[in-house]
Structures are given as structure tokens and as C-alpha cells.
Design brief:
This is DUF3305 domain-containing protein. InterPro entries: DUF3305. It comes from Thauera aminoaromatica S2. The relative contact order is 0.19. The protein contains 3 helices and 7 strands. Helix 1 (66-73) crosses helix 3. It is of the alpha+beta class. The strands form 2 sheets. The protein has a 4-stranded antiparallel beta sheet with strand order 2-1-4-3. 20% of the residues lie in helices and 40% in strands. The protein has one domain.
């Protein structure tokens, strides 16, 4: 499988703040094999918070990012990274990734990025890819710093 279809869950929390009335964040992702409809759909509507399911996204994996996928999978809590932007009154995801490197590049460019816990189905899929395509760099022998020359080999 080259792509893994997902939907992003965005949450709007009401704030008791005179300058900002709400805060948005990505709070989850779910597999979307059966329902990949891209239109945002409200799934929670409470006075203090609302959640929107935003479909139409697919995780893609690339061999040159395999080391970043490995780093993500071996972290205490593997993440799916969601880059999102405001569109009027609604926060909309723009793209998704499981690469630490890609998420770092997005953050460095000033984008809004949230990391959400990676569901087991996605972790298994990424793990299969990493097992197939990631080869750790061989460890290089490090020469010790010996400024006094105490470790000279006699010849």
C-alpha cells in the first residue's frame, strides 16, 4: 500500500479570554478507508468545545525519509504531524506526515503543526515500511582525543 487514507480530527475549544474567543488544535487522526469525504463534518457540538472530522488526506511514505520514520516510531509516543491553517472561522488541515524531519521543516517555516498520537494501524503500516527500507548507518570508530600523547603505540 503506497498511501494510507486518513481523516484529521480538529477541535475548537472556547476560551475565557477578552482577546481570543477560541483555540484550535488537531487532536487525532483516524483511518479513512471507508469514508474519505474531504468536506469538514462536525462530530462533536458542545458549549465549550466542538470537533470536526476533515477527510481527504493520505499519508505517503518515501525512502529518503525512512530514518525520520524510524525516529518517530521509536519515540515514547509516535505521532502523526498535522499542518493546519485557519480558513475563516474554521481550522483546516493542509497536509499530514509521519516524518520528524518534515514536521521540523514545517515548524521552521512558521507553519502551525500539531502532533497527534499515531493509531496502531498506522504504526504497523509505517513499521513495515521502515523494516523494509531503513538501514542504520554503520557505526564509525571514534578516535579518542589524546592531547598528552599517553596512548602512543610503540613500534
Amino acid at each position: 500500500m503506497k498511501e494510507f487514507p486518513i481523516a484529521v480530527i480538529m477541535e475548537r475549544r472556547r476560551l475565557n479570554n477578552p482577546w481570543v474567543d477560541a483555540a484550535w488544535e488537531a487532536v487525532g487522526v483516524v483511518p479513512a478507508f471507508d469514508d474519505a469525504a474531504p468536506a469538514p463534518r462536525r462530530i462533536v457540538d458542545e458549549p465549550e468545545r466542538s470537533q470536526w472530522r476533515c477527510g481527504g488526506f493520505a499519508l505517503e511514505l518515501f525512502r529518503d525519509e525512512a530514518e525520520n520514520y524510524f525516529a518517530n516510531l521509536t519515540a515514547p509516543i509516535p505521532k502523526v504531524f498535522v499542518l493546519w491553517r485557519m480558513d475563516g472561522e474554521l481550522a483546516r488541515p493542509a497536509t499530514v506526515s509521519v516524518s520528524y524531519g518534515e514536521a521540523a521543516r514545517w515548524l521552521d517555516s512558521g507553519e502551525q503543526v500539531d502532533g497527534v498520537a499515531m493509531p496502531r494501524e498506522i504504526a504497523d503500516w509505517v513499521g513495515d515500511f521502515v523494516n523494509t527500507h531503513y538501514q542504520p548507518e554503520p557505526k564509525k570508530k571514534v578516535k579518542r582525543n589524546d592531547p598528552l600523547g599517553l596512548d602512543r603505540r610503540r613500534t
